[in-house]
Specification:
The protein is mainly α. It is built from 5 helices and no strands.
Length: about 90
Amino acid sequence: MKRTDLEKNQALKLMGKMKAATPPTRFAGEAVVPDRREQRRLDQAAGLVAYPVKLTRPVIDALNARAAAQGMTTNELINGLLSQSLEL
């Protein structure tokens, strides 16, 4: 092999390692986000069920704004609003 081919292969190996590595905590923050399986298990333990709904953009923007103003997640806000409207 030529020297340039060897250098190219080393660079490809290095790029592969960089892509596979997890970001340091200074970039990811201190919050540890569970993977999908762990999140699904936590949701099931809490009695949560995924229920996809299609909403218009103005409704979504209003929900996000209200959730931010009240300091809660959109899931908590929507759960509360639906419970109130269904009188549960």
